[in-house]
Protein 1
Amino acid sequence: MAEEKTKGCAPTKTSATSSSKALAPAPSPEGSLSRYLAEIRKFPILEAQEEYELARDYAEKGNVKAAHTLVTSHLRLVAKIAMGYRGYGLPIGEVISEGNVGLMQAVKKFDAERGFRLATYAMWWIRASIQEYILRSWSLVKIGTTAAQKKLFFNLRRLKGEINAIDGGAMTPEQVAKIADRLGVQENEVEVMDGRMSTGDQSLNAPMRGRGVEGEDGGEWQDWLEDSTDSQEAVLAEESELDARRQLLMAALAMLNEREAAILQARRLQDEPETLERLSEKFGVSRERIRQIEARAFEKLRTSMTEQAEERGLIEG
């Protein structure tokens, strides 16, 4: 029984993995940053040969303990990179956590046979993970969807500082042009990004005060939005007019003979008009004759449509 009990208590691969993961201190937004930084300094920095052997052990044998050692030895690198993103108003603990996720992805994909150190490879994964987190958290509206926009987002503040445009309100056209040229983007993209970074998200349901009638509130912001689309009345009027014109056209076409209608439609009522040359071959007449038939048919059509419009009271005679 004792032997069975001992076997039953043998650690499984899953429990060993969980245990090894628990060894790494996890930064928390509620925790003490100074305590976390002190804890990660306890993990030694690996020598190149030791790092190489651990990376091979993890890649070839899936040794989780080796991966854990690689991760913990680079937690200081994550913290150092994360500190460079403190100006975005996000909890630094969460920024470090996202950087640690990038570090773990780097360890998973690291190939020690390529001859470079893990830190050189991991820093790109760490930065990418942190930047994606900042972009997701910055606004409810997705921002920085292209590489150029991401570059603009993460460099705009620094460049504004270099040209002394941080606290000067709206940038001048010269300042906007200089930043756009430095980053290889359009000037309007710089202006839009600067506006989005200068103001946070605001709810359209936020109450407005001071714009209503005396004694009443001003409603909500969405009440003052202007719809740029045509009104229903204008759309209905336009549709009715188009329908009336269509009816006049069909009735006028019915008054033409078969050849006149075919030539007029081929020459005037197609997106790509037929050439006189092809129509002359089709009907066995000269190009000049086709032109004459077209002109006569068009005049008949215009006269008929005008008369019908006057009869219906659509236009004044």
Protein 2
Amino acid sequence: MDGKNNILENQTLLRNKNTDSLTQTESESLHHYLKSATSDNTRKAYRSAIRQFEKWGGRLPTNQDNLVKYLLDRSTKVNPRTLDLHLTAIKQWHQTQGFTDPVETSLIRKTMEGIRRVHGKPKQKAKALRLEHIAIMIDHLHQLPDNKKKYRDIALILTAYFGAFRRSELVSIKVEDLKWETEGLIIQLPHSKTDQEREGINRALPFGDQNVCPATAIKKWLTLSNITDGVLFRPVNRWDQIQSRSLNPNAINELLKLLGSDCQFDFAPQLSSHSFRRGLSTSAARAGVDFELIKKQGGWKSDATVWQYIEEGQQLNQNASIVLMEKMAQLIKNNAL
């Protein structure tokens, strides 16, 4: 169904742009590029939003009045950020199909502003993993009976954390992407979530103490697994047999929650793959690592995002109240004398 929808969407775009003069080969190439212009994840999110609108009773094309009714009904049941996504999907559908956009009206905009003010909630963030948390996890894994999964998990955890990888990047790493140098390992990914134009990204993992070094852990995993090409991180079944396919991205969240529970972290339910990236950046900020080095290691495009992580990491040890509490304590001490 998704493939059929892609074709219909592209055909509509072609029809609206008067491309009748194109040859079949040129038309097929254009279809390919139009499809590539939107990521698969974005396309899936839009389709899900449209399905939810239609499940509610909406029909496309729609109009302003129906959208208002939809927003009023869903405002107390759905997060405002989700409603924003639904409106974006509906807006895109109308623009693609050549219909008048019912979303970009002052009434819809003001209604959404009110919904955000009344029902908006802080975004739930993944728990940032500190260095001590990673140390506890790795120590726990080292104490488990020897098997292939154990060494895969050690390599995966250390690589995800010190490389600040997204889960989609982590599961896409191939042996062919590993460039070994005297000083360590450089992982060269062809593209990632924020690199849709495929300029490629590099993450450097210098050699360090063998107990915490991701590059060393990857070498050991490769030796034990006998993986010589293809995807690096793969599923390992209950019989300790390595599968040929890539690890499912959701498996990383499951592994983190399980490890967190085994290590008796009270925040285990809050762990997700983003805990690695947030953890690396906030821990680096606490350690006084330079802004540019943090930004580079995480591959962040936005300075604002990096500063947000730095401020989060330093909010307790770089705090105006520390100096004031010290002065107050001194005043109390002096008065007591």
